[in-house]
Amino acid sequence: MAGLAAKFTSMRKLGLTERQWREYLGIEARTLGHGGIKAVARAAGVSEGMVSAGVSDVESGGLDDLPAGRSRRPGGGRKKLADKDPGLREAFAGILEEATRGDPMAEVTYCSLSLRDIEREMAGRGFACGKDTIARMLRAEGFSLQSPAKVLEGKKQHPDRNAQFGNINAKISRYREDGEPVISVDTKKKELTGPFHRAGQAWRPAGDPVRVRDHSFPDKDSVRIVPYGIYDIAANRGFVSVGVSCDTGAFAVNAIRLWWQKEGSLRYPRATRLLITCDSGGSNDWRFRLWKDQLAQLAEETGLVIEVCHFPPGTSKWNKIEHRLFCHITRAWRGRPLMTVDDAVAGIAATATSQGLKCTAVVDGNDYPDGIEIPGARMKYLQDRVIDRGEFHGEWNYAILPVPRPAPEPEPEPEPAGPDPALLQALAALAGIPAPRALLEDITPAWNAGREYRLALDRGRERLRPHGKSYRKLSDEAVLTAAACRIRLGMTWTLLGRLLGVYPSSISDQARWAIPVLGEHGITAQPGTPRITTARLAGYAAAAGITLTIPSPPPRPAKCPACKHPKTTTCPKLKKDAHYSRVTTRDHEGRPARRAADRTGGGQTGHPLPNNRRLHTRMKSSPKKLFAKALAITRASGA
User: I need a surface site. Which of 166, 390, 474, 612 has the fewest CB within 10 A?
Assistant: First the structure.
């Protein structure tokens, strides 16, 4: 018996299948004859039923009919629960229908219950089945365990999204064929240094995990690092500048500068151009002035033509640095906290892949304050002489030139404002100013200083930017001449507006600041000088030997016969209130008599207002105030 057991032990080590092992035991039992089944079962440590089945298979030859790879005939083994209990599938289908989520018309649906939840639901309905049975039934229904797939980019995609992708790929191909550097840049997720949790697992002694805080609130000792990455597409090399300040355009460009100084210039010694691909947000946003200003400085330092291509909004995950560098850095950091900045740098430097990726990391300890503004004059200079925008979406595709273009031709001076110079000379002669241009040169400093002082008082601060050139209806010489005519000839602003071809307010608003300055230079009103009106102007000019053409006044609009309303041919709409109607109606009926009384110096007897035309004027400007005033008048008069 001991020899038989040793024999079976040696045969078991050969790795026989269940079918081969059963058939072998049956052959040995038949060889021993009567009592062989019991002896073989004891020596091999198996049941007598297994040895008896092997003898039957050998004698009947049934094993020859089995297909390759099978050890038993079909129908053997324990029956499945779903086959033994017909109601099990129906109950399972009911639970799935209640827990299935998603669009029923779509092919993608999912179950909101776990295997254990479904097991408890089935037990509550009187069916005892394990999670393995439930998993097998779920697979039979077409379900599988999956995680969400990040493939949706949002509904509002730019119409030129695919065209910009093709443009970027074409430029990358041309640069690589020419041996010029192509880099993909972006800012990785900011991280806190200290004992903070990080996703992932790492090999450690059993029962000794790294203990971290149960929250991620920073404290005074924590430092927020800002990793800015540069991925060299052709060389499959990464470079990360780890900053400890703000993520600004200056920090991003300085990271590119460090890459060029430490690796790029050595790897591409004959490079004349540099292509940068990046997304449309963050510190390298195409709308940020600081980003372009710093790129202009970098181009001037390196002598490279820096061409930038931005991915369309909402497509930053297509940037190559995202899935060729940053994902591997995250893997290198997994399962262990970043206690210091050096730990973060060491983890980045240790990043490597089987495809040959290697990474360099440096610390940028400079301070990059946020909120730096680039003046408009600087941006205008960059737009005119440094930035070369592409034909296709110039806001996404542009080149920064190392040598500025020649300065553009200066803009032509605006057309001289004001009326005919001969008319100005005639008006100046009437006002007693023989040389208005010389007078203008004398008073200009004091005039401008007074104007700036008054404007500063009005706005409460000094001017933020220099006053630019703008078109004005009247030149300074015309304003000066009009102010002198107002002082010495008493000409009205309406008459001056007719002569100069502008509105009266266009003259008065500017000339009122020149009148005090002219008074300091001896141009004041002369005692006894007659007031020049439109009727007297032609005769006064002829007596002085000056030819002056006076334009005819514009036609007046039609007026209402009752109230002489100047805007329409009908009276204004009056409210239907009794007090309001009584006062306004009386105002319409008594208007001719009051006008006659006004011309003779008298007023309307017994009425609180000596001149009721004010009531009509207020009615046109503010009906609510008119009604309140009319109500007060009515109550005071006892009407």
Answer: 166
Looking at the chain, the whole-number percentage of residues with pLDDT higher than 90 is 27
pLDDT surpasses 90 at 223: no
Taking the C-alpha atoms of residue 573 and residue 623, their distance in angstroms, rounded to an integer, is 10
Q: Hey, which residues does 177 pair with through a beta bridge? A: none
**Which pLDDT score, from 0 to 100, does residue 430 have?**
79
DSSP 53: H
pLDDT tens string 72-101: 666 666 777 777 777 777 777 777 776 665
**Quick check: 443 and 521 in contact, CB under 8 A?**
yes
Task: Quote the DSSP letter at residue 77.
Answer: S
Of 346, 354, 404, whose CA–CA distance to 378 is shortest? 404
Q: Are 130 and 119 in contact (CB under 8 A)?
A: yes
- Surface-to-core class of residue 432, CB atoms within 10 Å of its CB (0-12 exposed, 13-18 middle, 19+ buried): middle
d(CA 243, CA 341): 9
Amino acid at 573: K
Among 282, 318, 292, CA closest to 157:
318
Give the residue among 319, 314, 389 at the shortest CA–CA distance from 159: 314
- 564-590: string of b/e by CB count within 10 Å (b at 16+)? ebeeeeeeeebeeeebbeebbebbeee
Q: Is the pLDDT of residue 188 over 50?
A: yes
Residue 456, Cβ neighbours under 10 Å: how many? 12
- Cα 397 to chain center, whole Å? 18
What single letter denotes the amino acid at residue 514? A
pLDDT mean over 3-11? 79
Q: Tell me the DSSP string of 402-428.
A: SSPPPPPPPPPPPPPPSS-HHHHHHHH
Residues in a beta bridge with 277 = 184, 309
pLDDT in tens, 330-341: 988 888 888 889
CB neighbours (10 Å) of residue 476?
Answer: 19
pLDDT score for 605: 42
**Which residues neighbour 191 within 8 Å (Cβ) at sequence distance 6 or greater?**
224, 225, 227, 333, 338, 344
For residue 280, what are the contacts with CB-CB under 8 A and spacing of at least 6?
Answer: 286, 310, 311, 312, 313, 316, 396
**Spatial distance between the Cα atoms of 337 and 210, rounded to a whole number of angstroms:** 8
